[in-house]
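ENTRY TYPE: paired fold submission
RECORD: A
CONTENT: sequence, then structure tokens
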Amino acid sequence: MKDIPMPPRDVVFPPGRQALYKKNRYSPAVRSNGFLFVSGQVGSRADGTPEPDLESQVRLAFTHLNAVLEAAGCSFDDVVDVTVFVVDPEKNFERIWQIVPDYWGNAPYPTLTGIGVTWLYGFQFEIKVIAKLPS
């Protein structure tokens, strides 16, 4: 059986974050088969360091997420699946979930998987999504 070459990845970069993604060796998002697969977004400052305040970190993660979605011609309304990673969810989940309605929109909501973790490279919250690309 002959190997069929994979087409190059259709990568989406939000404005002003290319150096950070290049440094860390990953794509912020990839378009494939009508969907946008967005890498986990965190509340990082311009230099890549964590925003220290939890609520500010969550808001900044959503700001970064929305910039990636916008660069692909999407919005959070196009998101169909969400995965969140939370350090110490017993302590932090309720605080985080009070911020979510500011970004989440109205029902029907996307699917959600929440995962408690012990370490996120100095961050306390990360969000990754899959969005349906507009036709």
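RECORD: B
CONTENT: sequence, then structure tokens
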Amino acid sequence: MTGHPIYFLWATPRSTSTAFEWMMRQRGDLSCFHEPFGMAWYQGPEARAPRVAPTDRQRPEATFEKIWIDIQEAAEKRPVFVKDMPHHTDHLWSDAFLERITHSFLIRDPAKVLASLHCSYKKAGMEDGFEAQEISFGPQQALFDLLRALGQTPPVLDSDDLLEDPDTMVRIYCKAIGIPFIRAALSWEPGARDDVLWYDGNDEIWHASLRDSDGLKPIPRKHVDPDDLPENLNLHYETFMRHYNSLYTHRLRPEMVSG
């Protein structure tokens, strides 16, 4: 298939990626997909997640092949933006798959990701409810390194940079992937976020901040000490930090803005 560009933002959980996706939805010039391969990974007939989805949450139609076809068919009509996580697709990384996509990455300090996960999983009653692969730091680096070996160096956006100066960093990001910057997309009305809600349906746990927000606005960054993390999460920190740092050196910087 040919068609319009397919833009992928490869993220980790709890990295402000859904807020970023919500901003991209406000543009009005993109067909947007929210973690479509995650649906197959958790709920589909070829599910690869470590936990079996409850029967009432299983989606027999959600095969990896069908989801990829749906994305490509959407790109026949207009440009497509997809937010997903690398571990959902690591078995699909053929040259043909990767070459059809315009790739970008959103990274976040692992201590902040793990602290946010701990809070969310605690609310959900699943404090030990993930495996390291699901946090996607390793798959993020693996995909980034693979793309560089294929001759690409995709743009990398750091969550702290984004939240310190959304206007500047979104402008730089848009230039990096080749789309116009639309400042109006950085603002929206608070309310339901059904378009980015799936799997457990628990908006109160996963998307409460996004639901109550009215845009991407500067937020002072706070330090999270990894030593304050619960032991089961702290064990992952150093490994995750190595993966994070490998992409951090390639991140987009505020001084790259022009025009």
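NOTES ON RECORD B: The longest strand covers residues 101-107. The longest helix spans residues 231-248.
STATUS: closed
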